[in-house]
Specification:
Structural class: alpha/beta
Bound molecules: zinc ion
CATH class: Alpha Beta
Shape: globular
Number of strands: 10
CATH architecture: Alpha-Beta Barrel
Largest sheet: 8 strands, parallel
Number of helices: 10
CATH topology: TIM Barrel
Order of helices and strands: EEEHEHEHHEHEHEHEHEHH
Strand order of the largest sheet: 2-4-5-6-7-8-9-10
Number of domains: 1
Helix content: 25-40%
CATH superfamily: Metal-dependent hydrolases
Length: 294
């Protein structure tokens, strides 16, 4: 096997984006964590090393990152990053958009077996991102997504770790699958994309809702409505970096050091005290993934 520390993925760039790193926001008064990022993806005018990412984040009051995988290589990298850095925990999975290709190659079950192995590592604290994506997948790929999602749910339960769900245009099918198969004890909707009605259903079931930078987008009133009805002890914050950069830097590269923009927006939206909200977000993160320090 090649050295996972050397793995890098280039962000596809169409040449029309402004790829300069946004200026660092004012640090948060109470430290929080980025619940979902893809730090193996190189973006920006000057790509940042993992150490630089974590230093910038810590300087902004973001003292840990849950690094999420989506295929074998990025999951191996995530596990390596978590094993090597006290400020990183890992989530590992075959992404719903990757599952059909593995299936077509006859390799899906073998890939899930690799995820099973990685999930046994002590700093791999979630299976993710897994779920369903009806937006980017052709209809003939849907059965592979269901097969993969259900197998990943079983892995989260087997290892007693959390699960990060990727749900794109598949709200009902995801909720129905969780009801049918049985959800892991700590189930997170990463980059929650539903509305207030779905947020109520999810919170009632005890799921966590992780809000990304798109919470700040003008057209995302559904997310703000969802946030408003989510119990405080079920709210998480994430970047999904390098994607979904919050305003006023939408379109530019995203990174954990930009979490304060989303958290301040959240506090204003909720009319919440910033210190209290930060403390709550940190507590929720640790409740889902456990401690970052060994
Ligand atoms: Zn996702
Ligand atoms: Zn993601």
């Amino acid at each position: 096997m090649t050295d996972p520390s050397q793995y890098v993925r280039e962000r596809h760039n169409d040449g029309t984006r402004d790829v300069r790193w946004p200026v660092a926001p004012e640090p948060l008064p109470v430290p929080v964590y980025d619940n979902h990022a893809h730090l193996e993806i190189a973006d920006g005018d000057e790509p940042l090393t993992l150490d630089e990412q974590l230093e910038r984040a810590a300087a902004a009051g973001v003292i840990g990152v849950v690094q999420a995988g989506g295929d074998i290589d990025s999951s191996r990298w995530s596990a390596w990053a978590a094993a090597s850095h006290p400020r990183v925990l890992a989530a590992v999975a075959i992404h719903p958009n990757e599952a059909p290709a593995y299936q077509a190659a006859g390799e899906l079950d073998a890939a899930i077996a690799v995820i099973d192995e990685l999930a046994a590592q002590p700093r791999v604290r979630a299976i993710g991102e897994t779920g369903l994506d009806f937006f980017r997948t052709e209809e003939d790929g849907i059965p592979a997504q269901f097969h993969s999602f259900e197998a990943h749910i079983a892995l989260a339960q087997k290892h007693g770790i959390a699960m990060q769900i990727h749900d794109r245009d598949a709200h009902e099918a995801v909720l129905e699958t969780l009801r049918r198969v049985g959800a892991p004890e700590r189930t997170v909707f990463h980059c929650f994309s539903g509305d207030d009605a779905m947020a109520r259903v999810a919170a009632e079931a005890g799921y966590y809702l992780s809000f990304a930078g798109n919470l700040t987008f003008k057209n995302a009133q559904n997310l703000r409505d969802a946030l408003a009805v989510t119990p405080r002890d079920r709210i998480l914050v994430e970047t999904d970096a390098p994607f979904l950069t919050p305003i006023p830097h939408r379109g530019r590269p995203n990174a954990p050091y930009l979490v304060p923009l989303t958290v301040r927006f959240m506090a204003a939206e909720l009319g919440a005290d910033l210190d209290e909200l930060c403390a709550q977000l940190a507590e929720n993160t640790l409740a889902v993934y456990g401690p970052f320090e060994d």
